[in-house]
Automatic annotation (TrEMBL):
The keyword Membrane applies. Interacts (via extracellular domain region) with trypsin. Electrogenic proton-coupled amino-acid transporter that transports oligopeptides of 2 to 4 amino acids with a preference for dipeptides. Transports neutral and monovalently charged peptides with a proton to peptide stoichiometry of 1:1 or 2:1. Primarily responsible for the absorption of dietary di- and tripeptides from the small intestinal lumen. Mediates transepithelial transport of muramyl and N-formylated bacterial dipeptides contributing to recognition of pathogenic bacteria by the mucosal immune system. This is Solute carrier family 15 member 1. It comes from the Eukaryota. PROSITE patterns: PTR2_1, PTR2_2.
Amino acid sequence: MGMSKSRDCFGYPLSIFFIVVNEFCERFSYYGMRALLILYFTRFIGWDDNLSTAIYHTFVALCYLTPILGALIADSWLGKFKTIVSLSIVYTIGQAVTAVSSIHDLTDFDHDGTPDNLSVHIALSMTGLALIALGTGGIKPCVSAFGGDQFEEGQEKQRNRFFSIFYLAINAGSLLSTIITPMLRVQLCGIHSKQACYPLAFGVPAALMAVSLIVFVIGSGMYKKFQPQGNIMGKVVKCIGFAIKNRFRHRSKAFPKREHWLDWAREKYNERLISQIKMVTRVMFLYIPLPMFWALFDQQGSRWTLQATTMNGKIGLLELQPDQMQTVNAILIIIMVPIMDAVVYPLIAKCGFNFTSLKKMTVGMFLASMAFVVAAIVQVEIDKTLPVFPKQNEVQVKVLNIGNSSMTVSFPGSVVTLPQMTQTNEFMTFDVDKLTSINISSPGSPITPVTYNFEQGHRHTLLVWDPIYYRVVKDGLNQKPEKGENGIRFVNSFDESFNITVGENAFVNVTSHNASEYQFFSLGVKNFTLSSTQQIPQNCTKNFQSSNLEFGSAFTYVIRREDTGCPKMYEFEDISPNTINMALQIPQYFLLTCGEVVFSVTGLEFSYSQAPSNMKSVLQAGWLLTVAVGNIIVLIVAGAGQFSEQWAEYILFAALLLVVCIIFAIMARFYTYVNPAEIEARFDNEDEKKNLENMNKYATVAPVSQTQM
């Protein structure tokens, strides 16, 4: 083992600070890049949402599966230090390749701002992402274990504190980068044409990865480095295999039982290896229930963000976007980790309660499960305010009278009379089979039947402007607008078509007595400018304003010509804005974050402290594997169980985690904590004794033989 003089600073080895800074830069780099990925896939490469999401989740799962590879390389071949350095180089190259793949000028030969050969960009970015997955996954288990290696025996307290600081660095890095990289993306850049600046937004993480590598190498002289001890994983697998085979051979009653199934490997393997494997298998066994925690935890990026899109983001003076709610988690962690370490744990200890690692983890699971109960309660509150959308076999219709006289429309079972420029307040819901006839009538004119093939599961607007003229428009909105935006469409009651511009968006060629498609806008007051094929008199205004748009609403604006010849605008609400405040999500984020702090930080530390010295990275990788499996559970559950009610899915997850939590608590009762260093020291002593005995044997052989003669 290569030792170098370890210097101290506040009772911590100085080398720790290099490791923490390295981790901060690496996480900034990783999360910064990850924050852009979905948008890069959809907007730059142009994949649809489903493909993008699938590739994104595959990438994330890969990043948590490759740690096993990194751990094997570190524990059995290169050692942690060399593994971190070499894989960081791979990682930096991957970041750089991804940044290059996002330069639109690379294949933009006609200089129109869009790449001409997309396959080059796709190939480059996939190569880059594969290298990143290998790099980030490969160094993940090594960095935390390498940090733990820097402490001496008897520095357990500092070591626990280190895992907390380490976790803090992870979250500080992710918080800053999720705020900063989207700002960089919005900048415009390019050689021949200016486009959203993905190269800069991907380039900054790449630069930070290089910084992270340099910082780590600078500290090289101060680290405690342990030599790897041959292919340890191979030995473990062979030893377990042998034990099982051997146990199976001796299954009859004739053979005495052995204390532990691994003791059946004694014939072939030494006690030290067997006891080390026992430590690992006992911890791995405890890991079996843990993915369930991560399955819930990882939904704050997907399900909870979708929940936020149906809420109102005005919190005091702040106006939050739904995807910014995730930063609440990182902010809370940065607050909660020090509070737990400095306040909560010492208080619990003062009360004389022995709050062991596994008890902490059980509490963490319980808190996460409660977070989902709270999420379900919030969801029920939201559902009360949501509009009712048509089910698969239903059709919804509303009537909008854009003519100059009053109209009567009769549906099966109801009759509606509308004065001019009014609409029915609600959408009326009908079973497809029941919607047999709709008739329009007006005083002193014949009855007109409406013939239209209504599409199941959709909303429709029936525009009427004359007893014999009507048009049915399919709305195309059968859910709240995404990302908390607001839908706007225009209805033209002129006799000729017109164009309307709203900010940068244009509604082109809205034909006479027809409705445009919806387009989506963020919050605030919007200005509309009208231009028509026929002349609008000079003295008329062509500019109109919307009401103040909030979150998740949809409006129809009818433009009609007044008697003076001037256009006038009428506003109709299709979907009311979200009313429940996003601040209501804070309790569930708070519970989940507290759960994460007691569960995740403790898990890192527990995995390190219970692992034998030659398998520290392997157990860290096992811990990260539970995260990967959690991600996969989400993909399966989300794919398999389509709940009609979102709150029911939350309750299901909460219940699953509660059951798992109880099972885990029972498993933890039977776990006895070990001190790997002590056990290994005992074996070292025994080895020394044996060596001495052997020496003595040879020393005393001659005299004995003489006396026997």
